[in-house]
Q: What sequence folds into this?
C-alpha cells in the first residue's frame, strides 16, 4: 500500500514544480521572521524574487551542525517557544547539544512521513507494532509512535532495553512489526535463543531498522535469524528524525520524501552538485517545516541518489544506504559519538593533550562495544594496581556521563597508539559496516 | 631507613617485560628483587635495584612510564613462622600493608622481605620498637 500516492508517485516535473513552489514559500517564511536566516539572506541579497524554480536553491547558503550549536538553545526557531509543541535534543561534538523544535504542523508532518515509511516497509492499518527505539529526547521512539498512530497501527511503546520483557511481549502479543536499531534486533535474537523462544515461529514479519549504519551482511543475518524482512529507515533529528527516507520491500535504495525534504548530493570539498549515482554528501532542505526551518543542511552522511521510478510504483527518488561520513562521527548503539567528546573528558582529567584511540567492535551478540585506549602519563602512574584501575574507572564514568553509552577504558603505554602525521589515529572500527 | 623501589607500567602484550629488563641491563642496573602485579590488561613491574634513580632515568628515556616509591626492607627469620611473626606486629599496630615480596638472596641466615605501606615511617618506628631489623640503602646495594 502507498500511504500518500499523490505525494509519492509524482512525475519528475510535477515534483520539481511542487518543490520550487515550496522553496519560494520557505524563503518567504524565513525572510519574514527575525533571526539567523533573515540576516543571512538579506546579507546576500536573496528574497522570494530570487527563487523561480527549485534549481535556485543553489543560491542559498548551506547550514552546518556548528550553526545549529551556536544558536543554542532556541535561536533557530522561527516561532515563539510557546508555539513549539515538542523539543528534542541531540548530542553535539563539544559544548552545547543541538535542540530541535517541532511546531504542531511539524509533528503532523513527522507522523505523515513515518506513516509513508511504515507503508513502504509493508505495514498495513490494523497491524501491531513493537517500538523498541528509545522514547525520550532521542527522536526514534516518539517518531515511530506518531507515525504508527497516523497509519492506524496498534502501538506497543516498549522503548529500548528490558530485553526479556520485549521478548515476552513478542511471544504473547505476536506483533507483526518491530522498530529498533539493527544491532538491538541481533541482540534480541541472541537473548531469544537463550530463552528458548523460536524466532522463526514467534518472530516479527517486518523489522524497521535505523539510527545506525548497517551492512547488507547484517541485513542477511537479521533476516535469517528472525525470519523477517529487514527494512532500512533513515533520518536525523535536525531534519525531523526518522522518516526522511525508507526502503520498500524491493530494498533498492531508500525512498526519500522529496516533496517535503529536498535532497542534494554534493562534493563536500567543492560544494558542487554531483550527478545522480555519484556518492557525495547529502544536503537536505525541509521545505515545509515551520518550527525550525533549515536551508541546505549538510548532513555529513555520504549517499548517492537515484531518480528512476521504482518497481513498487513510487517515483520518489531513492538514496543509497549511508556509505560513510564526511566527519569523524561514529554511531555506537544508536548514539552519535565524536572523538572530540572523549578528548574533552580526557583533557579535563589529565590537564594536557591526551593521546587516545576509540576501538569499536560488534560482539557475537550483535551489540556494539566501545573501548577507549588512553596512553598513561607519568603523573598518573602508581605502583598500585588498584589506583590505576580506579583511574580507568573514573575516566570511563566521566565518558559515560557525556556520551550516555557504556565504555571500557584501557590504559596503554606512551607512544603505543599509532600516529599518523603526529596525530593519533582516533578510531578503529572493526564492525565491517 | 626506607629504601627505593622502581616501578614500571607494562601493557599486557608480547615483549614488554623483556623490553624493560633490556633497558635496565644496558644501563648496568642490577635487579635485586622483583615482583609483577597485574590486572586483565596491564601489569606493574616493581623492583629493588642497586641504582634506582639511574634506572628510572634510563626507563623514561626509552619511553616507559616509571616511578619510584619508598618501601621498607625487613629481615625476617628464615624458619617456619618467621614471616608470621613480623606480620603479627603490623596487625597488632593497625599498620596497613599494600603489598610485599621477598628477595631471593639472604642476609646471613635471614630472609629479606620488602613491604609497601601507606605510612612507611610509622611502620619503621613500630618495627624498630619490636627489635625487627630494617635494612638501609647501603645494605641493599651491597647484597
A:
Amino acid at each position: 500500500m502507498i500511504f500518500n500516492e499523490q505525494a509519492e508517485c509524482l512525475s519528475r516535473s510535477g515534483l520539481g514544480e511542487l518543490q520550487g513552489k515550496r522553496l519560494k514559500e520557505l524563503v518567504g517564511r524565513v525572510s519574514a521572521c527575525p533571526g539567523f536566516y533573515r540576516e543571512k539572506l538579506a546579507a546576500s541579497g536573496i528574497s522570494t524574487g530570487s527563487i523561480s524554480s527549485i534549481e535556485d536553491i543553489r543560491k542559498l547558503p548551506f547550514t552546518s551542525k556548528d550553526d545549529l550549536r551556536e544558536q543554542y538553545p532556541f535561536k533557530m526557531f522561527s516561532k515563539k517557544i510557546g508555539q513549539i509543541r515538542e523539543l528534542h535534543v541531540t548530542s553535539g561534538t563539544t559544548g552545547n547539544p543541538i535542540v530541535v523544535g517541532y511546531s504542531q504542523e511539524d509533528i503532523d508532518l513527522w507522523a505523515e512521513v513515518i506513516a509513508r515509511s511504515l507503508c513502504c516497509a509493508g505495514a498495513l492499518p490494523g497491524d501491531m507494532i513493537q517500538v523498541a527505539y528509545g522514547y525520550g529526547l532521542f527522536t526514534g521512539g516518539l517518531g515511530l509512535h506518531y507515525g504508527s498512530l497516523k497509519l492506524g497501527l496498534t502501538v506497543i511503546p516498549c522503548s529500548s532495553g528490558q530485553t526479556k520483557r520485549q521478548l515476552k511481549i513478542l511471544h504473547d502479543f505476536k506483533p507483526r512489526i518491530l522498530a529498533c536499531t539493527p544491532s538491538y534486533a541481533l541482540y534480541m535474537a541472541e537473548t531469544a535463543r537463550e530463552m528458548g523462544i523460536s524466532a522463526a515461529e514467534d518472530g516479527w514479519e517486518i523489522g524497521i531498522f535505523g539510527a545506525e549504519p548497517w551492512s547488507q551482511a547484517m541485513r542477511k543475518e537479521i533476516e535469517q535469524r528472525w525470519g523477517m524482512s529487514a527494512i532500512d529507515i533513515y533520518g536525523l533529528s535536525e531534519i525531523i528524525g526518522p522518516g526522511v527516507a525508507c526502503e520498500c520491500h524491493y530494498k533498492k535504495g531508500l525512498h526519500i520524501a522529496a516533496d517535503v525534504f529536498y535532497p542534494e548530493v554534493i562534493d563536500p570539498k567543492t560544494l558542487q552538485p554531483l550527478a545522480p549515482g555519484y556518492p557525495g554528501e547529502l544536503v537536505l532542505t525541509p521545505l515545509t517545516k515551520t518550527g525550525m526551518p533549515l536551508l541546505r543542511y549538510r548532513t555529513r552522511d555520504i549517499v548517492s541518489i537515484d531518480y528512476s521510478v521504482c518497481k513498487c510504483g513510487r517515483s520518489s527518488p531513492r538514496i543509497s544506504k549511508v556509505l560513510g561520513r564526511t566527519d569523524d562521527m561514529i554511531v555506537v548503539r544508536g548514539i552519535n559519538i565524536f572523538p572530540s567528546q572523549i578528548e574533552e573528558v580526557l583533557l579535563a582529567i589529565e590537564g594536557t593533550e591526551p593521546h587516545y584511540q576509540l576501538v569499536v567492535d560488534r560482539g557475537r551478540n550483535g551489540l556494539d562495544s566501545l573501548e577507549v585506549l588512553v596512553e598513561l602519563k607519568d603523573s598518573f602512574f602508581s605502583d598500585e594496581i588498584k589506583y590505576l584501575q580506579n583511574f580507568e574507572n573514573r575516566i570511563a564514568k566521566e565518558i559515560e556521563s557525556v556520551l550516555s553509552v557504556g565504555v571500557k577504558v584501557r590504559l596503554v603505554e606512551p607512544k603505543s597508539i599509532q600516529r599518523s602525521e603526529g596525530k593519533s589515529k582516533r578510531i578503529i572500527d572493526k564492525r565491517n559496516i | 631507613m626506607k629504601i627505593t623501589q622502581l616501578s614500571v607500567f607494562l601493557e599486557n602484550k608480547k615483549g614488554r617485560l623483556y623490553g624493560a629488563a633490556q633497558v635496565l641491563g644496558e644501563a648496568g642496573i642490577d635487579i635485586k628483587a622483583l615482583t609483577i602485579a597485574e590486572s586483565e590488561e596491564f601489569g606493574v613491574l616493581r623492583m629493588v635495584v642497586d641504582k634506582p634513580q639511574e634506572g628510572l632515568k634510563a626507563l623514561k628515556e626509552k619511553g616507559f612510564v616509571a616511578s619510584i616509591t619508598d618501601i621498607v626492607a625487613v629481615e625476617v627469620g628464615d624458619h617456619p613462622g618467621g614471616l608470621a611473626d613480623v606480620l603479627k606486629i603490623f596487625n597488632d599496630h593497625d599498620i596497613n600493608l599494600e603489598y610485599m615480596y621477598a628477595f631471593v638472596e639472604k642476609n646471613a641466615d635471614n630472609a629479606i622481605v620488602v613491604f609497601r605501606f601507606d605510612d612507611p615511617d610509622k611502620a619503621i618506628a613500630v618495627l624498630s620498637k619490636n627489635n625487627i631489623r630494617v635494612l638501609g640503602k647501603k645494605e641493599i646495594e651491597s647484597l
